[in-house]
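Lab notebook, bench 4. Still working through the backlog of constructs that have no structural model yet. Next entry is a single chain of 192 residues. Request: give me the structure tokens for it.
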Amino acid sequence: EVTPELRERISALKNQRPMMRLIGGRVKNTVRENLVKRSLTRRNKFGARSSGFWGEAAEKVARTTPAVDSDSVTLSLNNPGIARAFGPVTIRPLTGVYLTIPAIAAAYNQRAYRVKGLFFAKTKKGTAFLAESTGSGSGVKAKLKIWYWLVPVAHQRQDRTILPNDQQMTAAALAGVDDYFARLQQIKGKSQ
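Model written out:
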């Protein structure tokens, strides 16, 4: 908790940048730890192997240097998946007409064009998919294995758990303040 005494001590500082650097480091580590935890606990649908998406996001955060000025810290999070922490996201294909949504575990983590033998088809209701023929027969009697559902747009709901919650972020920032004043005490103790 930020007490009035702590506020007074902080406002009395002539140069807050060193403290802001420590706050930034603590917040950065808290965000990175949250993403690492997510990478270890989130599983793909159908039990497919992980793409390592959240682990890569954690690595990017680890390589990020928080921007510090006289009274604030900014941590830039350059990963498209993190946007969902702040609100719903709409995804559209960058090229082509459809996004490919894996329908089976084998479809995860690979581009549809790299899977040999897939063909485009639609259900009677107009749902598009990519499939392979798995047996004899033709037309309605053909045996198909659907690899990907094809959609023109995907909507993902907001997910606040991608980043640490407000209490965790505040605790990290306060730990940075504590680090700063502990260092001041060490320096003061050495000079006496």
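Notes after review: The chain has a mean pLDDT of 89. Helices lie at 4-11, 17-41, 53-62, 166-191. Flag for follow-up if needed.
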